[in-house]
Amino acid sequence: MAADPTGALHMVDVDELERQFKTDASPQVYIPLGEAYLRRGFPFKAIAVAQKGLKGDDSLNGRLLLAKAYFDASAIKRNYLKRAADEVDGIVRSNPNAWEGFRLKGEIALERDDLQEAIQALQQAHALNPSHPQARMLLKSLNIEVQDQPTGEGPFYVNVDTDFTAPRTDSLLKTFRDIFIILAIALGVISYLAGVSIEEKRLHGMIFLGRSQQQLDTFKGLKRAKGVYEIVRKKLNPNDPFSMIHLAETHYALYQRHERTQANLDAFKKLFAEVQRKGPKSLLAILPEYHALLVASEYEAAQEMIRKGNRAQAEGKLKDLDAYLKKYKLELPIHVRLNWVHGLVYESLGKNRYAKAQFKRAAEVGWDSVFYRWRLGYYHLRQREFAAAHTQFAKATEQAKQNVNLVKGTLSAPDKQKNEYCWIDPPLIIGNSAPPGLQLGTMDLLTEAFVAALRSDQLSNCPFHSAIQKKMAASPYYLLAPIGDAISVLDAGVGMSVGFKMIRELEEKMEKVKKIGNLSPHIEGWYHYAQAKGSYYRGDYKEALESIEKAGKLAPYEAYIQSLYGIILFKLEKWDDGMARVKKAIQADPLLMQPYYEAAETLLNATKKSGDDDDAEEKPSQSKRAEEVLDLMKKAFKDHSDYLYLLGRLQYNKGDQKAAEETWKKALDDQKAPYYGDHYESNLAMGKLWMNRAAGVPKDKNWKKDDYEGLHKQFTKYLDKIFKKIDDRVVKKKDNEEIKAEYKKFLEELKEGRGKRLRKKKMELKVGDLREVYFESAGAFFQASMQTRPGAVEPRLFTGDIYFTNGSYADSTGHYTIAGKGYLRDLDYAGANKAYTRLARAIAFKSYGAEELKKRKTWKRIRRKKRKEAGEEVAKFFRQQADITLRGPYLKLKTTKKKKADKYEKKELVKTVELIAKVLKNHKESIVDDKVVEELQEDAKTVKEKGLIAWGKIYEQRVREKMAEMMKKARRGRRRR
Q1: 30: nearest Cα among 12, 8, 52
Q2: pTM
Q3: What digits encode the pLDDT tens for the residues 534-552?
């Protein structure tokens, strides 16, 4: 179908389409109606329409509509994601040129964290339609190189998902009506153009310039936009509704994200009241940005009620706003601000999945606005969905650069404009045709295009241009997105070194931002918060306290900052001060998960030795304070997976394992937020629980009569699972029945307390079967946790332990290797030492073989030759790891001709090599040549004192000597022959 370059479809009358759809479910009706529902944030209505329409029309566009509706609905109900994937797979199979199908396939894969499939699908979409920006920008956010924006692509072509034509009708009467409407609009535009004054044309140009700066959402950009709108009101038209609305929006943006001052909030409320009083009623009624402002004003009032504890009253107001938006979103033209404020309302009502759907729709329809993309990332951050937050913040950072390029390269440069005046004329950019799949996206821009629909030959030269070009240069630094990105990476716990690097990059950006005056108190507070986060994760709590104190002074109202403040005080054992800060955070934002979660987890992890002895048991020491936080958390999140997980932890700390297990099972219910049955922490906790059960099964030499009753209960409880394993292992019916009969006899003897009468070997096998059942259950939970958070280290380490215990040494080495690298990535050297020590043991065991282990019970009895072979294999592996660790950065330095490596990177490299030397030195169970250890220690010392280049020369000399030795041996061999 042809694209709609005029953007007229955004003005489609939904009521009219709904009336037509009752009697006419043709593609010309159901597809536009479904699209209208989707763009306004009603995916379930779109699904119903698409399903009915497809009964009589199996077209590509109809199926795409259904797939997109399923995908949008998956933000609310997760099971719709599979339906979307199945629908899209069918589309691309039947039509390999369906670029939209591949683009949607890529987005679905991203939602599933399947990066490889996402990249392949998006590359295919980009190849099929290189003009469309979405596939290109998604690939860029994944660090995949793609060609730049095609020449001639208009900057206002944003992400709108489909092409369709206006609905047609067979009614002659309706046709005459449509023609009359079109002629009336045309006459109206001509009349407007004829009567409009030069001042009004300048006014619209100035507004457009203000919007270009407002769109950047930087502190300086918003200040400039504010200045432009004030000039318009002071010198051109004080009662212009658009300048009043946009000025109110600017004050609100400054209040929310830059200067959280009462002055900004009061200015916003005063301007909005002025809009209501002076704005033309007929115009305001059809302006979606006016309705969005109205909801934003009432939303702020509801937030104040929540902060004061009037939760019931606030909920009543928020429900009214929800009803208001549901009504007007269908009557008004599409506008991202309506989706955005609806997301805010849903978030405050605790309807997080609905909030996500609205924020997602705003980000997609408002693709060229960095704020809406950032707000979606912030939503994920609030929900502790850190991987998703990282993706959205990265996209927002990229979009900030794109917006700056637009302002600098097009809006501010006369030679690059479509005319010689002081603004871009959107209709001239659009022209009579548009690249396939591209059309106007935000109603915001469409409205401005209509208002500023002026021909260049009717305008005089703009006297403001030269001055404005100098004053309105865009800033490339939108710091909220990279700050959020660094925080989300650190909080994810699967990329500490990456997160620390991002914090260092922020420091460099900060210096540049300060020079150009683009730093608001709010952003500076968030910057110090990110610094405190980095110091906290490095374990430097005093440095973290210094940073968080600065953040607290700049943005005392920010719940995130107060929460981290409290956690750092907990780490310094200032328990009462920490609790005061946590409660302040909860009061500032009662619906933010982070203060509850961070505080409860930190308090539950706090332990104290039960005696003065160094070997004394560590016991929970802050359970009462943790319970106090959880009581507060229950009021806001009683059915949330995070709350249930923490409650289970509290029950476990109190010694009630049964209650903890039941609570964690509830947390894994597929209807609980936010992971839909894939809650990482709960899966990990359940896995550990089963591991502890396996470890608690007494071994043969430790069997006591007191153990029989407990063992009998365990065997009875899991007998079905044990028999299933026997069925899998023993195929012959007779042998199978004999083994099961023997098991039943064994259980009777356990019950009677005569377990020792069984032969020792048979007892070992049966207890081994029980332990294996426990290990399998633990492994299933660890597998689920790895799928939920692919980069997580702990489940990898424990899975390696399971394989090692079962004698699968090859499998265990793989998991230990990944775990070791993960710990190094997170700069957790104690964890890496643990993983690599176990890896060394697994490599050594692997080299003996299963048969040898069956013959020999203990390590010392194995022949010296075998021990030496194992030790050499371990040493060889770690020597290679050390060389790889150092050689990569060395070659990078050498090829780029840099004189020194990054000091942080060098420090990490040295620690890694020192760690490897320590593992080999402590590996008592195999023979490792001391020279290998000494050589590694010397390598670390060289890098620390002299740098990578000096180490590289030593390494290259070592390689040459080795090769010369090998050649010498080869020549000797030839002479002998």
Answers
A1: 52
A2: 0.80
A3: 999 988 999 999 999 999 9
